[in-house]
Amino acid sequence: MIIVQLILYCFLFTYMVRLAVRGGAINGLYFYPKPVQERAIEIGLTAQDTMNRKRKRFMVLFYIVMLAALLLIVGFWNKVMDFKTAYLQSLLFLEVMNWYDGIAIDKLWVGHSKFWVLPGTEDIPFVQTWRQVLKKRCVLTLIWVAGAAVTAGLAVLIF
């Protein structure tokens, strides 16, 4: 059952990213490296305040949805009652999401789809190298060790 839940959780993650860029990749400019953002703003694809507003709106919604989904899976669906089990399940989901984002989203989807290429920025690299992906994912792995404690505590407390 955990495998099915992990697949559903990753599907939700993908759906949220897809929702952010409905209408075109420019709507997710905040996902791109700084040089791409600066060029896109410079050539008039969008404005800095528009990008910042979209980032804030998306990130708040994203964190709320992904946290709620994780709490519902661990606390409601799996009926976890103790902190240790809730922590281990939360950590598993957060780490799978972390590495899924780096490999499936960043390297595969973004790296192999013309959808993400912004006109006028083709000469600027926007896909992370494997080294960058590994570095970022390792840092986030450590962050999620602490984050899982928060979600586990909430799951046990709420459910």
Description of the molecule:
This protein has one domain (2-158). The protein is mainly alpha-helical. The chain starts with a helix and ends with a helix. The chain is built from five helices and no strands.
Task: Give the key terms.
elongated, 72% helix, 5 helices, single chain, mainly alpha, 159 residues
Overall body shape: elongated
**Portion in beta strands:** under 5%
Secondary-structure element series:
HHHHH
| Nearest-integer average pLDDT | 97
**Rg value:** 17 Å
Number of domains: 1
* SS field, number of helical segments: 5
Please give the largest β-sheet. Answer: none
Helix content: over 70%
Low-confidence stretches: none
From the N-terminal CA to the C-terminal CA, the straight-line distance is 19 Å
Write the layout of secondary structure elements.
Layout: H1 2-20, H2 34-42, H3 48-77, H4 83-110, H5 130-158
